Amino acid sequence: MENNENIKWQEREALERFRLISPLLDPEMDNAKKIQMRNKIAVQNDISPRTLYRYESSFRDNEFEGLKPVPRSGVHSHKLPENFDNLVKEAIQLRLEVPGRSVDQIITILEIEGKVPIGVLKRSTLQRHMYKQGFGTKHLKVYSDARESSSKRFCKPHRMMLVQGDIKYGPMLQIGGKKVQTYLSSAIDDHSRMILSSQFYDNQEETIVEDTFRKVILRYGKFDACYFDNGTQYIAKQLKLSLTRLGIRINHAKVRSGKSKGKIEKFHQVVDAFLREAKLKKITSLEELNRLWTIFLEEYYNKKPHSGIREYYESVGVNVPNEGITPVQEFNRDKRPLTFIDTSTVSEAFMYHVTRQVDKGACISFKGRKYETKPSLISHMVEVAYDPFFPETITVSYPGIEPFTAKPLKIGEYCDKNETLPVGIQLATSETSRFLDALEKKHAQSKKRLTDAISFASYRKEGGNNV
């Protein structure tokens, strides 16, 4: 359990560090502006610019893994004062009085007021507890300036620098005797306006967004950043974790800021045109809807000259051919190389991770089914990784053991309510009792020793009479 907690703690810390340096990873930012931004973030989060620079270097060298801190040893470097809870309350009050107060300043005030001895209260400890209670600098001030600057740009200069995503209601389909609402999840390249992935689903869970962006990455490679609204599907923890693991930054539009999502909203007008045509086809299956939609994208939208591309080039003084430029032409003519990632790495990044306790039968329960693990894991907490689109295949991990695929437990025609023991520890059949055989052997040895002792005593006695 402690090892799993360490893993979760490392993930949380890495995500927080990535959040801090995310504005500094923009390749278009010059060095002077980056230094200014780094100093600003350092002040707002009560850390040194040098620490931020170290995080940036670690991310450049090892991406998301480089941001994970060294595992906890389980031993605290100092003992918290007995009145620590009251100190946290006092610190929160000081922060509310002046939101700009740093944690170091708050500690200084508490020390001067005699609330705590000098040097006892550590900045990192107090900052962590204030953050947990919702009074960190992140909760009091958002990086609105960074988001505003990105949303005001008309167009990114190259492909795969920014990908926008959104969900739109699709048509109602008569499937299996009942009406089903469909939803369209799409991803569009900000520069070329080419649709990288778009598909209708029968639900609007966060998994459809993850599926959309996984397909983008597998097909076209890694992109620098993505831009979403604040819908529940786009602020979900799993999506954030998956993209961050691949080193992809996430930006969110300001609330009620429709203009900032202009490209994807303009595309949705094209979707409306398709839906009007699709209505005439009387489609009755999701597969047929997606088949026609794919044809529409490949043969019409992506191959049709886009007015937005013309406007972009004319705004920077570049002539555009009379026939215009299509999204697929603009995407393919861009000289910026595509960065592909190994399929297994992408799959792992989009895996869901949960913990389960192994029962006395060396099994775990997952989504209503029993899965066999290993006898050595009985009573231990293990991590289960699975693809939400294929939940029947799960991978079990535990420190010190090579991850393995767990198989569903097969139950025979006749069984009782007791948990089935794993094969490795099931009772074995035998033709005899090894315990009784061992005792019989020992008994024979004892009798032999007794016989030898009697024979030796008789020999001694006879020998004595002859002397």
Keywords:
six-stranded antiparallel beta sheet
Structural account:
The chain is of the alpha+beta class. The chain has 16 helices and eleven strands. A six-stranded antiparallel beta sheet has the order 6-9-10-11-8-7, with no helix packed on it. Strands 3-2-1-4-5 form a five-stranded mixed beta sheet, sandwiched between helices. A hairpin with a 2-residue loop joins strand 1 (162-175) and strand 2. The chain is extended and about 125 Å long. Mean pLDDT is 82; it is low at 142-153.
Inertia-based shape:
extended
Radius of gyration: 33 Å
Strand order of the largest sheet: 6-9-10-11-8-7
- What is the average of the pLDDT values? 82
Structural class: alpha+beta
Largest sheet: 6 strands, antiparallel
Give the low-confidence spans. 142-153
Tally the beta strands.
11
What is the helix/strand order?
HHHHHHHHEEEHEHEHHHHHEEEEEEH
Helix coverage percent: 40-55%
Distance N to C terminus: 79 Å
Helix count?
Answer: 16
Strand content: 15-25%
SSE inventory with pairings:
Blueprint: H1 2-21, H2 31-44, H3 49-62, H4 84-97, H5 103-112, H6 123-132, H7 137-140, H8 144-152, E1 162-175, E2 178-189, E3 195-201, H9 206-220, E4 225-228, H10 237-245, E5 249-252, H11 262-279, H12 286-301, H13 307-315, H14 327-333, H15 343-349, E6 352-357, E7 363-366, E8 369-372, E9 381-387, E10 390-398, E11 401-408, H16 434-466
Helix pairs in contact: 1-3, 2-3, 4-5
